Amino acid sequence: MADAFSGGSLRIEGVSKYFGAFRAVNEVELEIRRGEFLTLLGPSGSGKTTLLMMIAGFLDITSGDIALDGTSIANVPAEKRNFGMVFQGYALFPHMTVRDNIGYALSVRKRAEGEIRARVDEMLELVQLQDFATRKPGQLSGGQQQRVALARALCFAPPVLLLDEPLGALDKKLRVEVQEQLKDIHRRVGTTFIYVTHDQEEALSMSDRIVIMRDGAIEQVGSPQELYERPATRFAASFLGKSNFVQQNGAVFALRPEKIDIHLGTGHPQARRRGTIASITYFGSMQRIIVETTQAEQIEVDIDVWRNRQALHEGETVELSWQDEAAVELNES
Amino acid sequence: MNAVARHIHPGWAIVAPLLVLVVALYLGPILNIMWLSVTDPEPGLGNYRKLYESDSLLRIVWTTLRICVITTIFSVSLGYSIAYAMVHCHLRQKNYMLTLLLVSFWISILVRTFSWLMLLGRNGLVNNTFETLGLISAPIAFMRNELGVLIGMVHYMIPYAVLPLLVSMQSLDSRVMDASRNLGASGSQTFWRIYLPLTLPGIVASTLLVFILSLGFYVTPAVLGGGKVLMVAEYISVQLLVTLKWGTAAMLAALMLAGVLAMLWIMSRFMKLSAVFGGSTR
């Protein structure tokens, strides 16, 4: 086979980016491992896309260095970096067929006609678009276009694949489906994926590791479990999943809504808060209850509707309890 | 309400007066000219037969076509470079360039034509300067020949060539070019394989516009050609005003109209005209 996949490792060393006086990315240090699925997660304006564009080579870095497998690529132009990229909105070539779109990278490298054909067939199979090879991008649905973009970016077996909010244009149901496919393709090709999104569900369900970004800097790095179970800051706790913040012995703790137990009435031995139910919202599998405590906090409690069949009503007095390890102490500075 | 009235959309009531006006004031005279071309001076195809029989008439048509093709080629290729520069420079510079372009667009064709005479005529600025500097012994014949006509026409046509190209380049998604680079294409590969094909509708639109406008050019060939370069429009005017052969004039006018319509038809077979004139490409 002409192009065997093998993931590359990236080192981002103290990278900053200024646009005039505005600092878009601030001293980012990050080690991206060979073959991992890494997600850059943050709200818009957090610098995640700017960082991705610097990795792709579309933006110069103001200071710092980026190295692929130990070699600096900071001065390598975008067209020589050999990184695949799936663009926001896909940026397919509208005047070319699906086949020509996917084969473009090999064709500009002047590979032999037959070799390109074989490779494109392989890619079409990978993204299951064998029947659409002769269509133009305008004749495809959003999900199909997204798969063409993915196949085009993977066709030349890049060591690193960059994905810039690739699911942003899809509706919610399709997005879940495509997440599965992406994850599966990542497993099969073994290329290093760097994925930019502002959608925490996408980040949680797909990534090996997540980098939470805020104001151009890294807030916290870790596996989805680490970040969800042990958020280090108030921002990390509220951006990834929902969180209550409670004061205990002068420190601030993050407390996930589903880790709180709710008890009707008073006098529960483990009760930590007492309050009244301010509102109940029903979501089918769970109920979200907002409790106004006697300490003037608003605490959200998610309860499993099936396993918790107490009849709760707005205005009733309840007590809340949680286990010690459910509350995570935050670094408040 | 009768059956016919029920099938007519009430919106037509708004459009109808305009439609009548267009038919009366536009289609009417055109039909009249066509009619003239086959009835004056006597009924029959005698006027059209002159195209074969008269060498001078044929030469005029040939000269017109040659000048229009050359003008179109130069205007569109220069216009493409200008539009490209405008789209890819800073906004400030772009606004300067657009202003300059529109200023030359708005200046009367007469003024622009005579300016060229002042610049490039026998005693014009360029020839005088070169002679004073001793670079040439006799003035270069820029004007009063086909070269003069071409210089004047290309200059006049460039804004017309630039504007459709500008629209087409501005509507391109720059991420598509980024994608091409990201996939390893060099600058020239990206240009030839992505940029040029995607701006093709703009090229076709500006080619059609320039060519069609060039066909009817009158002032520039008359002034800069110095009577030596006779194009169809000038010949028509001579037939109308001097020799009073309205039939010949009408025949040539009908011929030009047919030529333009034929070009539009041929183009429409290769691409959707709605895309060329700014409609959706889907």
From TrEMBL, chain A:
ATP-binding in keyword set: yes
Gene Ontology terms, MF aspect: ATP binding
Pfam families with a match to the protein in the record: ABC_tran, TOBE_2
Coiled coil: none
Domain of life: Bacteria
Limits of the ABC transporter domain: 10-240
This protein's UniProt keywords: ATP-binding, Nucleotide-binding, Transport
Xref: PANTHER family: SPERMIDINE/PUTRESCINE IMPORT ATP-BINDING PROTEIN POTA, SPERMIDINE_PUTRESCINE IMPORT ATP-BINDING PROTEIN POTA
Protein name: ABC transporter ATP-binding protein
Organism: Ruegeria sediminis
Classification lineage: Bacteria, Pseudomonadati, Pseudomonadota, Alphaproteobacteria, Rhodobacterales
From TrEMBL, chain B:
Keyword Nucleotide-binding listed: no
Transmembrane annotation, as ranges: 12-37, 57-84, 96-119, 147-167, 198-224, 244-266
Membrane topology: Multi-pass membrane protein
Domain of life: Bacteria
SUPFAM superfamilies: MetI-like
Principal subcellular localization: membrane
Keywords per UniProt: Cell membrane, Membrane, Transmembrane, Transmembrane helix, Transport
Presence of keyword Isomerase: no
Domain ABC transmembrane type-1 residues, every copy: 61-267
Localization: Cell membrane
UniProt similarity note: Belongs to the binding-protein-dependent transport system permease family. CysTW subfamily.
Record's protein name: ABC transporter permease
Organism: Ruegeria sediminis
